Amino acid sequence: MERQPAGFGFWMATSLLLCVVGIQITLGVALMINAALCERLLHLPSHQLTRHPLVMGFNDIVEFGVVLAFGLYLNRPHFRRAFPIGRITVLQLLGVALCVLGAWVLLSNADNLLRALLPIPQWLLKLFEDLFFSKDRLLFGVFSLVIIGPVTEELLFRGIILRGLLSRYRPFTAVLLTSLLFAAFHMNPWQALGALFLGGLIGWFYLRTRSLALCVLAHALNNGWVILFALLPSDIRDMTGIPGNTAALFLPWWLNAAGAGALLAGFWIFRKATPQPPAMPEGPIAVTS
Questions:
Q1: Three-state SS string across 7-73, please?
Q2: What CA–CA distance (Å, rounded) separates 128 from 177?
Q3: E strand or H helix at 287
Q4: What is the average pLDDT across 117-123?
Q5: What pTM, to 2 d.p., does this model score?
Q6: For the purposes of burial, counting CB atoms within 10 Å of the CB of 210, is it exposed (0-12), middle (13-18) or buried (19 or more)?
Q7: Nearest of 96, 80, 81 to residue 274 by alpha carbon
């Protein structure tokens, strides 16, 4: 007898994210215990282990890898259907780059206002600076923010969660729910607004192309702008340099206009390059019982 598995619902997607957080906590506790032992026995500073780039990268791969495997089991797609590469044109890539850059500029104003109303704790600022923006860790910042983060998060959020939700909900609802989960996953309000908008934008890219590779590239571009603007020698307050805890200062009008123009141009170019969305992905396959 054959039965059709129930669609991949919102609470199932939430459970997957809780699994990621649970594995993160478990690995973090185990790492701190190991670091404390190394500090006691080998007299090595504990932060050398807990914040080592290779250790942090390994943790990301493990925690997302376990949950991705579990999500594939629950969603039951063929691997190539769950993680489609797709064909990417130059115009599509240009449209994506402009959309992401324009959105990033415009969202900077909202981010500045939020940081003024709800200041970022100094320990969190120091952690971000030490991990991603210090000179001796610049390569790790690029590796983590531009490669590891986009690949693992897009495999989960667009490859597993969004594809699964599309089997039960309308496209708009599925993208919205995925974006909300994506924002909540960052676990701090200072990244939530940007993550919400970015999740919706990448979800739209996925609906138009069914290309997970394009989603990874869009995510990588967004994170890459952060590093690029942090390293620019010119000074645009609250935009260039390492994000700080400052008063609400809006960007110059010409920069906002340029951001809006880039966003609109990116939408237009991408729509022209992708005139018709491909067919919806197949739902869960039938299983024999």
A1: CCCHHHHHHHHHHHHHHHHHHHHHHHHHHHHHHHHCCCCHHHHHCCHHHHHHHHHHHHHHHHHHHHH
A2: 28
A3: strand 287-288
A4: 79
A5: 0.83
A6: buried
A7: 96
Q: What is the pLDDT of residue 71?
A: 80
Alpha-helical (H) ranges within 119-170 are 122-128, 138-142, 149-154, 163-166
Structure tokens at 168: 């039960």
Residues 6+ away with beta carbon under 8 Å from 133: 141, 227, 230, 242
CA angle at 115 for the pair 232 and 255, rounded to the nearest 5°: 45
The two tokens of residue 138 are 């610049």
> C-alpha angle with apex 13: 206 to 142, nearest 5 degrees?
55
Tens digits of per-residue pLDDT, 29-39? 877 777 676 66
Determine the residue type at 41: L
Residue 143: its pLDDT value, please? 82
For residue 137, give the DSSP letter: G
Ranges 25-39, 171-185, 232-246, most confident: 171-185
Most confident of 78-92, 124-138, 223-237: 78-92
